[in-house]
Amino acid sequence: MMRLVTTKRLTRLETETRAASEHARQTSGAANAAFARHLRELRAAIERAERAEAATSEVGAILRRALEQVAASEQELLLKAIAVRRLREELAAGPVDGQALTVLFHYGQPHTVYASREDAHADTSTHGYPADHVWGPRGERSPYECRWSCEAFIYSAASKGFRRAYVPSAEPVGGAA
Hints:
This protein is α+β, with helices and mostly antiparallel strands. It has helices spanning about 5-95, 115-125; strands at about 100-105, 110-115, 150-155, 160-165. The protein has a four-stranded antiparallel β-sheet with strand order 2-1-3-4, with helices on one face. The longest helix has about 90 residues, at about 5-95. The radius of gyration is 48 Å and the shape is rod-shaped. Keywords: Coiled coil.
């Protein structure tokens, strides 16, 4: 069986082939453009995810440091609370007869009060004296002549106050003996 192809039919087939080819080219171009757009969107999404991951790790590091600081602050606060409780107990107990305090004088003026002579001597290094400085008695010098001096005061329950541990000898009044 033979089929006769006319010129008209051949022209129509060629036109349909060109149209199909053009349609295939346009469809392929649209598919390529859509694929490229999807790749760009995917790349952008990956970059956003990487930035979010970096930000998350940075926030995690900041949070870890903050938690470490909070833990250190809580520890310091606990130690201070213990010290405050101890000081409150000492304050509530009140002074005990014979309890001594040491006062650091600067040119005869009271400067600081310490619980012990050792504390006063150790702290004088912040005022220009070495911690191992040998302290001697002031003797007959006026307190205003001494740059730094320490004096002990003892609590007396009878007077409900502190008195000097060392009472200087009384000077004769007006030169009388």
